[in-house]
Design brief:
Elements (H helix, E strand, L loop, with lengths): L10 E2 L5 E10 L6 H10 L4 E8 L2 E6 L12 E3 L13 E6 L9 E7 L10 E10 L6 E6 L9 E10 L2 E11 L6 H9 L2
Antiparallel strand pairs: 1-11, 2-6, 2-8, 3-4, 3-7, 5-6, 7-10, 8-9, 10-11
Length: about 190
């Protein structure tokens, strides 16, 4: 079993064939009370979990938003867009099957973002990024990453899986940053900087 923290540095994923990363959050009223606060909680907020496959320093595939299987072979799969944060458990997940990732992919950067206009981390509470060893169909949690509540940024680089020879390593990044909302190139540049 692996355990991951930012302080530990990259962890070997030897024996891990499938990895899942999930994001969960709760809707909040922000600082609004009464009817307006109730409406904001009911509406929820839309955060997005996005996995960007890199070939060297170039982003070449994106799982998330409206792309659920960007490799076309089930090796990098997104669960779909939860636009409210309502419900129990992870609101969005990305699952990687390492053996099926094409050989030109050198890393995969996992990002959570308030990507769509009008969404923000400040409109969500209890944001949590969970990492699971999903080998053999099980789902064993190996990390729970919490972003800082003090950040005014709208993006967070959660983790990065890196190919090392024929194996993979995973590093917890948990680094906030600004991403221009609705701009996929800004999202790609953010991933490439990690």
């Amino acid at each position: 079993m692996i355990t991951l923290t930012k302080e530990d540095g990259p962890a070997d994923l030897d024996g891990v064939t499938h990895l899942s990363i999930g994001v969960s959050w709760d809707p909040t009223s922000g600082s609004s009370g009464g009817v307006l606060g109730s409406l904001r909680r009911k509406q929820g907020t839309d955060l997005d979990l996005i996995a960007i496959a890199m070939a060297g320093g170039d982003p070449v595939r994106l799982a998330g938003l409206d792309s659920l299987d960007p490799m076309g072979n089930g090796s990098l799969v997104h669960s779909g867009d939860n636009q409210t944060g309502k419900g129990e458990g992870d609101d969005e997940t990305v699952t990687v099957e390492f053996a099926r990732i094409p050989g030109n992919i050198t890393s995969i950067v996992f990002i959570a973002a308030a990507y769509k206009k009008g969404s923000s981390f400040q409109k969500a509470r209890n944001i949590s990024f969970k990492v699971y060893d999903a080998t053999g169909g099980s789902s064993q949690q190996v990390a729970d990453i919490w972003p800082s509540l003090l950040s005014a940024d709208n993006g967070c680089a959660v983790a990065k899986a890196m190919r090392v020879g024929s194996s993979w390593k995973l590093e917890v990044i948990n680094t906030p940053g600004k991403i221009k909302q609705g701009d996929e190139h800004a999202l790609m540049r953010f991933a490439a900087s990690k």
